[in-house]
Give the backbone structure.
Amino acid sequence: MAGAKMTDGAEALADPQNTEPATHTVLTRLREMIVTGEIAPGTRLRAEALATQLDVSRTPVRSALAVLSAEGLVLYNMNRGYTVRAVTLGDIYDSIEVRARIEGLACRLSIEQGWTEEGLQPLDELVARGRAIVDRGEWSEAIEYEWYDCNWIFHRRIHHAANNLVLRHAMRMTILYPVFGDAVRVSPTVAAHVPPRARQIAATVPPHIVQSQTDHENLLAAIRAGDGEGAERLMIEHVLRTKARILAIATLR
């Protein structure tokens, strides 16, 4: 899973960030490499070497590093340049807390903006796709990635429907762990604090996925009903379940 990437659908929903496409592509890839541990904490990030590795010019790499520094994933020092910051479990908890409130706000704002049937159709399709995955009953690394892909795009569509660029920029600063899979398994920071058995792939759909799928269905119903306060509350509870689950598993050591 560490090498998994967002699908074309998710990329199409990525924030424009007022940058050139090459910069955005490099930014997305570097962020992914950092949060999955592909680039280890403390690693010096040299624009020339990264440009060669990613087969791009140094300009988008330098722009991406500046953004990652503002987001807190990398540190800048006049003498050493950019280095990857070590993310702690406390950072992960803090990011989930903040993300829950921002995502809840996004839900409410999206309803205040007004949803059209055309806009709701992709949400219907994503929720139905997620339900079909869960109802199959089987589970594997590939199926996990398939479900989390639906999850990622579902959330991103709500973010964009809020029509608030400041909110979307703030959201990016909470991505301190991979969003394409279970944080307990694919985040090196979280994995270091949970027992190995908790990181094993189950043969059947895990309870937290069943709960998350139900959350998505309830969120969609609240959005369709125009219940802004209800959707905001449901989204906050939905996101905070991740923190509660990590806390519970971390105590099993």
In short: The longest strand covers residues 74-77. The chain has two domains: 8-84, 89-250. DSSP finds twelve helices and three strands in the chain. Residues 1-19 have pLDDT under 50 and may be disordered.
